[in-house]
Amino acid sequence: QVQLVESGGGLVQAGGSLRLACAASGRTFSRAAMGWFRQAPGKEREFVAGISRSGSSLYASDSVKGRFTISRDNARNTVYLQMNSLKAEDTAVYYCAARDFLPTMNRENYPYWGRGTQVTVSS
Question: What is the C-alpha separation between 51 and 99, in angstroms, rounded?
Fold first, then answer.
């Protein structure tokens, strides 16, 4: 089992930045691939970024590439999502997820999830 707790969400103006954190406990964090997803009201949960246990990253195409950066600190059992140049359309609940092996864009492949943290970007 892996327990995940997100933090760092909040209200920010368009163009601003936030850094989300996901603290993991339970199974060995350093072996897990981690992902960030988001879900806006009335929309499906979508992949944002993922990172392998060795630090290789994967990003959703176009929408966040160049603005968001995923990273991890295995010593702190924490994965981060640095979000810059935020836009109103980035408003969503952001979820952290974990799985074995490599990160994927398919949410169905992640068995472990946090409860999410709200990010609201005002225009």
Answer: 11
CA–CA distance, 11 with 18 (Å, rounded to integer)? 9
Q: What is the pLDDT of residue 47?
A: 97
Q: Which residues of the chain have pLDDT under 50?
A: none
Q: CA dihedral in degrees (31, 115, 79, 33; nearest 10)?
A: 30
With vertex at residue 106, the alpha carbon angle to CA 63 and CA 54, rounded to the nearest 5 degrees, is 85
Tens digits of per-residue pLDDT, 80-89?
999 999 999 9
Instruction: Please give the structure tokens belonging to residue 4.
Output: 């995940």
Please name which of 113, 109, 8, 104 lies closest in space to residue 59, comparing C-alpha atoms: 104
Cα separation, 12 vs 118, in Å, equals 11
C-alpha span between 67 and 85 (Å, rounded): 6
